[in-house]
């Protein structure tokens, strides 16, 4: 017999999330500038099937329909991202009024539907003009990001209820600059580390700019997960610790502690690091965790070619990711480990203690290759099971005393899944890309019932 669904605090925030390049489309309309993802998608072989985000889910034109679906879903908040090149086409200088007007309309539509707008300022779509000038390898990009944040904050401060300047800086650093699997497609290995520092510096500067513009309730959406050692052997435990330092604490310690997790890492960062860390650690109102899967890591083995998400790691590393066995997998190949979410929350509360602000789960979700709709229905029992399991695990974390205040399911609709193109479907709502018809999946109706019972 299935245990009753757990209760969450009465003020728990139920949300869904999306990202601009993944849903908006309209890449050549109304003065939008070119982004690194436009360039990356145009390079043959970069994206599965040659797909691009040029049309995506056409959210730019269809947002009233999408907001109506969110209203019927009953969510309290919608986490969306603002496209930097839509607002500041060259990343610096002239502002595009039409871009700001679009987000004005979207925010007004959300407010009218009783949904709190939760805005991310950077979900990986760096303006191409800034990338041409060095991108996140350049300290100047952090300053330009703060200017952009000030523009958006000045326009939307009175209606946006949650702000997060950055989404998953670890992914931009690792897959965009170190391994080349994402835009801008650089393969710099450890020479990509300055991009981590400059993103975090840009985040701190943007937090300050948003506060100066009258914005409140500011956090971050950062990807984190447990790192399990492949065995109890000392070399495997050390390897797992090293990996966790790079993918977890390199991106959380500077924000929450004002320092890097190891002096060796701090020594590799550019600029006046000590002074920069004072900016990076500008206090937040909350901290957002994006969780998808744990990592299993052991010591490097001779002659191996370790990979992460299909990307080959540079040689000479002291660690080696290993496949996680014994769990079901999504159609994207990710292991489904709900208790990893509880474990992630626990490792944050243990590490930071009273210095940890309230937490939100700003993303969690799964891709399954759903069937096409039949008679207006899309059965997706594995997605229902995924969110059910993860919410039960999160409830255990809350029962253990963690201050977790909300959960954003990824994603609101099916969308462009970066280098994987359109094959992967994460949405609660099915999108027929040929017609742009939206069909709520069974998971949508399940989540609506969960939210309804919680009220």
UniProtKB/TrEMBL annotation:
Alphabetized UniProt keyword annotations: Carbohydrate metabolism, Cellulose degradation, Glycosidase, Hydrolase, Polysaccharide degradation
Record-level GO cellular component terms: cytosol
InterPro entries named among the record's database cross-references: GH, GH_1_N_CS, Glyco_hydro_1, Glyco_hydro_1_beta-glucosidase
Annotated EC: 3.2.1.21
Record flagged with keyword Cell inner membrane: no
Active site: 168 (proton donor), 363 (nucleophile)
Matches recorded under Gene3D superfamilies: Glycosidases (3.20.20.80)
GO MF term (any one): beta-glucosidase activity
Highest taxon, organism lineage: Bacteria
Protein residues bound to substrate: 22, 123, 167, 292, 410, 417-418
SUPFAM superfamilies noted in UniProt: (Trans)glycosidases (SSF51445)
Keyword Magnesium annotated: no
UniProt catalytic activity: Hydrolysis of terminal, non-reducing beta-D-glucosyl residues with release of beta-D-glucose
GO BP annotations, alphabetical order: cellulose catabolic process
Family of the protein in this entry: Belongs to the glycosyl hydrolase 1 family.
NCBIfam families: BGL
Protein name as catalogued: Beta-glucosidase
Protein species of origin: Actinokineospora spheciospongiae
């Amino acid at each position: 017999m299935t245990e009753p669904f757990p209760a969450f605090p009465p003020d728990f925030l139920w949300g869904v999330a999306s990202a601009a390049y993944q849903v908006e489309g309209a890449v050549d309309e109304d003065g939008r500038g070119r982004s690194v993802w436009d360039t990356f998608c145009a390079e043959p072989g970069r994206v599965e099937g040659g797909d691009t985000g040029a049309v995506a889910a056409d959210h730019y034109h269809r947002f009233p329909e999408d907001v109506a679906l969110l209203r019927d879903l009953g969510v309290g908040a919608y986490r969306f991202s603002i496209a930097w090149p839509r607002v500041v086409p060259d990343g610096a200088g002239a502002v595009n009024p039409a871009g700001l007007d679009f987000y004005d309309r979207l925010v007004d539509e959300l407010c009218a539907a009783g949904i709190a707008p939760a805005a991310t300022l950077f979900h990986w779509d760096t303006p191409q003009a800034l990338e041409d000038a060095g991108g996140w390898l350049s300290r100047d990009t952090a300053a330009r990001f703060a200017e952009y944040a000030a523009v958006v904050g000045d326009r939307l401060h009175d209606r946006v209820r949650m702000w997060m300047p950055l989404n998953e800086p670890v992914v931009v650093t690792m897959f965009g600059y170190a391994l080349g699997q994402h835009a801008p497609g650089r393969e710099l290995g450890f020479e990509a580390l300055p991009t981590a520092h400059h993103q975090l510096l840009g985040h701190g500067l943007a937090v300050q700019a948003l506060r100066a513009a009258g914005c409140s309730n500011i956090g971050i959406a950062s990807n984190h997960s447990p790192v399990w050692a492949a065995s109890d052997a000392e070399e495997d435990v050390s390897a797992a610790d090293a990996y966790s330092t790079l993918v977890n604490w390199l991106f959380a310690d500077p924000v929450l502690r004002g320092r890097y997790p190891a002096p060796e890492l701090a020594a590799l960062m550019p600029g006046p690091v000590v002074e920069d860390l004072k900016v990076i650690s500008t206090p937040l109102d909350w901290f957002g965790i994006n969780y998808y899967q744990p990592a299993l890591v052991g010591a490097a083995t001779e002659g191996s070619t370790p990979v992460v998400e299909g990307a080959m790691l540079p040689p000479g590393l002291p660690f080696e990711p290993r496949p996680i066995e014994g769990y079901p997998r999504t159609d994207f190949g990710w292991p489904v480990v709900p208790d990893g979410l509880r474990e992630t929350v626990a490792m944050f509360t243990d590490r930071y203690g009273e210095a940890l602000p309230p937490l939100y789960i700003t993303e969690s979700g799964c891709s399954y290759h759903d069937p096409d709709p039949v008679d207006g229905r899309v059965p997706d029992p594995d997605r229902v099971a995924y969110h059910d399991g993860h919410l039960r695990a999160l409830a255990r974390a809350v029962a253990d005393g963690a201050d977790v205040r909300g959960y954003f399911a990824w994603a609101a609709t099916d969308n462009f899944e970066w280098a994987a193109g359109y094959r992967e479907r994460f949405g609660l709502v099915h999108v027929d890309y040929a017609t742009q018809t939206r069909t709520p999946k069974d998971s949508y109706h399940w989540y609506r019932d969960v939210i309804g019972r919680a009220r």
